[in-house]
Amino acid sequence: MENKKELRNWLDDFGLSHPLVIAGPCSAETEEQVLTIAHQLKDSDATVLRAGIWKPRTRPGNFEGVGALGLKWLKKAKEETGMLTTTEVANPTHVDLALENDVDILWIGARTTVSPFIVQEIADALKGTDKIVLVKNPVNPDLSLWLGAVERLHTADISKLGVIHRGFSAYEKTGYRNNPEWQIPIELQNKFPDLPLILDPSHIAGRRDIIFDLCQTALDLNYDGIMVETHHTPDKAWSDAAQQITPETLIKIMQDLKVRKEIS
Ligand code: PEP
Ligand code: MN
């Protein structure tokens, strides 16, 4: 990959905080829910609001997202709080709708990164965009698939690229929902040192109590940011309830991470 330096510049160009903090609900549920969470995050370190509107549920019969309607809520949240917005896109139609509705950052989910066909279709739909595109690792621990997705997007002249480490599935049950396998993102960084790397502790943990430690490890490893699922009433969330934390808890986590940094 050429011009590696340009990959990193977008963090500065957007005046984005370092570490970049992305926060918001797993899923956009209602307009009121999105706006409530956005306002609770407004004065925190989070500069980007996340919310999934097309939800890739592993099994059918669960809440599959509010769809395009949620794009209006994200836009309103941006207008009211000044936060940038991000959502998951999983096909070219999602890409077109997200671009039409001024979503600032698009992310490709773990179940999409596994498919070179669909990644290529998304790359073609995004060709030449100046939007920021973040690529989650594939669900399975396969570095080549992750690299391949990044290369397809870079070849489509998408220069503001980054990656999100959300952990890797395994058949055996461990204390994690998805095992971190920290060596895999480190290997990816060895290949592309200037690709911003963001941790998604929520999908690694699957629970609330280890979010802080995962964030701390990411900062110790010099990650460029974190994306944390955050909900005003986490227990009532329509998806991924067990792992979401309140904006208040996120603010506390950020304070504690800073204190640790200052004394180390
Ligand atoms: C999400 O971010 O809510 C999500 C579905 O993530 P992943 O693709 O990592 O499972
Ligand atoms: Mn989720």
UniProtKB/TrEMBL annotation:
EC class (word): isomerase
The keyword Coiled coil is annotated on this UniProt entry: yes
Keyword vocabulary terms for this entry: Coiled coil, Transferase
GO MF assignments: chorismate mutase activity; transferase activity
Keyword Transcription: no
GO biological process: chorismate metabolic process
Catalytic activity, EC: 5.4.99.5
Protein name: chorismate mutase
Parent sequence residues shown: 1 to 264 of 365
